[in-house]
Amino acid sequence: MKLVKASQDITIPDDVKLEVKSRKIRVTGPRGTLTRDFKHLAVDMYKTHDQVENDEGEMVEGPLKLRVDCHFGKRKRLAAIRTCTSHVQNMIKGVTKGFEYKMRLVYAHFPINANITEEGSCIEVRNFLGEKRVRIVNMLPGVKIVRSTNVKDELVISGSDIELVSKSAALINMSCHVKKKDIRKFLDGVYVSEKTTIVKDE
Known about the structure:
Blueprint: E1 3-11, E2 17-21, E3 24-29, E4 32-37, E5 44-53, E6 59-73, H1 75-96, E7 99-106, E8 113-117, E9 122-126, E10 135-138, E11 144-147, E12 154-159, H2 162-175, E13 189-197
Antiparallel strand pairs: 1-6, 2-3, 3-4, 5-6, 7-12, 7-13, 8-9, 9-10, 11-12
């Protein structure tokens, strides 16, 4: 069954500037600028103010919101509304708080050596399962990797774009897969242990 109109709103924080033009979103905040194109989705996107009642009973403009509409959509097109708003919320969170993924070096016998080069934009993984091969993983643009100062064998990956941060963590994890052995027994690798934000909540 088609729904005549479905919509969802996102409240835009005061310290964030959001521009929308022909389904292209540009979000600017304290940590930088992120852009994303939603032209492949059949939705309408525009900024709006809701009318709210103040203490004196007068109708005034409420906070600025981004509204995503879908007209005459079936199930799959209606699902695109939530997808779109989730992406924009991640962009807003990225330019205000930033994203931080923590990874742990896990080994049973051969200690994994991780060497961070090029000012935190590249990592070299050595001695994985005693192999001589050096695994070099480059971080995606805008992503930095550092060694944790207070936890042994921990890496901290940070950036403003959640997709680039998570993909960088995935590239490190994929470079250290155990081949031709029982993965239930050989659990060595580099695994994501925590997903958090750079600016912590109060």
